[in-house]
Write a structure and sequence with these properties.
Layout: E1 10-14, H1 20-32, E2 37-41, H2 44-54, E3 57-62, E4 69-71, E5 75-84, E6 93-96, H3 102-114, E7 121-124, H4 126-135, E8 140-144, E9 157-161, E10 168-176, H5 182-193
Parallel strand pairs: 1-2, 1-3, 6-7, 6-8
Antiparallel strand pairs: 3-10, 4-10, 5-8, 5-9, 5-10
Length: 201
């Protein structure tokens, strides 16, 4: 039976840092191919656990351990720097992500340092970053893709894209090689064929 004739919804576990615009493009592209896709935001660590134990299909933030997993080509997304014009505290930089995987966070931090940024480096969810920037307690945030800040921050921050050749975030599709579900393998092929543009990386 063709996938388009089935009512099963396929879950795609996606790292919280994956751009929403890309998730939307995947859902639309999958629908055109007859795949009913439901995107769930899940930490990379939890997604990997479910890929290995439940045969889930996921998008994780790389680099991660992918032994015995089917992995896609890297999906690179550029980052944007938002800097407080007149900070009240010594330099501090936060990646806008609620739970970045350790390996990926180290790689991003190292690239930012090579780019000339000064730590300490931490992570913060969107609301935490907005609060830190607005009060001046945070001097800089790094967003995966262009950020959408509230207009009240316009007077105190400047935002600019960092050249993708210098700093970018890498995502990958992962699926257990032991997964025998033909729908998931079909969905994998469909998702890999969708052009996300990667306009920011």
């Amino acid at each position: 039976m063709a996938l388009s004739q089935r009512s099963q919804v396929l879950e795609l576990l996606v790292d919280p840092g994956f751009p929403e615009s890309w998730s939307g493009a995947l859902v639309l592209g999958a629908a055109k191919a007859g795949v009913d896709l439901r995107v769930l935001s899940v930490s990379t660590e939890e997604a990997l656990m479910k890929v290995r134990s439940q045969g889930a299909l996921a998008i994780v933030m790389a680099p991660v351990r992918t032994q015995q997993l089917r992995t896609s080509a890297p999906l690179r997304c550029g980052v944007w720097e938002t800097r407080v014009v007149s900070p009240l505290v010594s330099p501090s930089t936060a990646l806008v992500h609620p739970c970045p995987p350790a390996g990926a966070f180290r790689a991003i931090r190292d690239d930012l340092r090579a780019h000339g940024m000064i730590g300490p480096f931490s992570s913060a969810d969107r609301l935490g970053a907005i609060g830190g920037l607005g009060t001046g307690k945070l001097t800089r945030s790094i967003s995966i893709g262009p950020p959408a800040w509230p207009t009240e921050l316009d007077a105190v921050v400047e935002t600019a894209e960092i050249p993708a050749l210098e700093v970018s975030v890498v995502f990958q599709f992962v699926l257990s090689r032991d997964t025998r579900d033909p729908e998931k393998h079909f969905a994998w092929d469909v998702l890999e064929s969708i052009d996300l543009g990667q306009e920011h990386g």
